Amino acid sequence: MANKEALRELQHRLAQRMQAVRAEQPGQSWLAVDCAGQGLLFPLQHAGEIFETNALMPVPHTRPWVAGVANLRGGLHTVVDFAGFLGVRPPLAGRTPEKLLMVGFNVDLGLNCALLVDRLEGLRHAADLTRDDESAQDRPSFAAGRWLDTKGRAWQEIALNELAKHEMFLGIAG
Fold first, then answer.
1. Euclidean distance between the first and final Cα of the chain, in Å?
2. pLDDT value at position 86?
3. Alpha carbon distance 174, 160 (integer Å)
4. How far is C-alpha 158 from the geometric centre of its chain's CA atoms?
5. Residue 132 in 3-state DSSP?
6. Do residues 111 and 164 make contact, with C-beta atoms less than 8 angstroms apart?
7. What's the topology of domain 2-170?
8. Which of 47, 97, 88 is nearest to 67 (CA)?
9. Which residues share a beta bridge with 157?
10. Domain extent listing, the chain
11. How far apart are CA 121 and CA 102, in angstroms?
12. 3-state secondary structure of 36
């Protein structure tokens, strides 16, 4: 119960901060997450609600990275094990951790989907990062810019609007 309250409080603080960022700081801003040790940036305008659950229903005959479906605020959402989709960790494949943390897509993208991530890392702003596009080749269309923070940690921007149209991402049938 305390975890749910802490998540609600975090969501509330993030929502307030997102509103403040939109008002005070022009330019790019992202929701930062950790996914199998990889720093990922989801654009604020394309990221949706943050969910925590431990209840997933498996979906047979889908790709291994489809973790299942979940009822999130009354809507049925496909849950994608994002680390498994990216190939940075073996997919969950039927095993369910105690707590699942997910970031939904903005409703404007028209996709009832949530990405399973390991940890929220707060907000990041372009003004606080340095662009690092040395490895721009060999990236899929949804892997936008690559950034470095002041501590030298690399952050990969994920264009959720491009991911929502990506053929492999949409091809969940296994």
1. 36
2. 94
3. 22
4. 8
5. coil
6. yes
7. OB fold (Dihydrolipoamide Acetyltransferase, E2P) (2.40.50)
8. 97
9. 41
10. 2-170
11. 13
12. coil
pLDDT tens string 57-76:
999 999 999 999 999 988 99
How far is C-alpha 3 from the chain's CA centre?
A: 20
Q: What is the pLDDT of residues 1-43, one digit of tens each?
A: 567 787 777 777 777 766 665 554 458 899 999 999 999 999 9
How far is residue 79 from each of residues 40, 73, 118, 149, measured CA to CA in Å? 17, 14, 13, 29
- How do residues 105-134 score in pLDDT, each as one tens digit? 999 999 999 999 999 999 999 999 999 876
| In contact, 101 and 116? CB cutoff 8 Å | yes
Report the C-alpha gap between 147 and 7 in whole angstroms: 27
Per-residue 3-state assignment (H helix, E strand, C coil) for 65-94 = CEEEEEEECCEEEEEEEHHHHHCCCCCCCC
Confidence of residue 96 (pLDDT cuts 50, 70, 90): low
Interatomic CA distance for residues 169 and 174, integer angstroms? 12
Residue among 52, 74, 56, 73 at smallest CA distance from 65: 56
The one-letter amino acid code at 27 reads: G
The two structure tokens encoding residue 48: 């949706």
Alpha-carbon distance of 169 to 140, in angstroms, equals 11
- What is the reported pTM? 0.82
- 80 near 92, Cβ under 8 Å? no
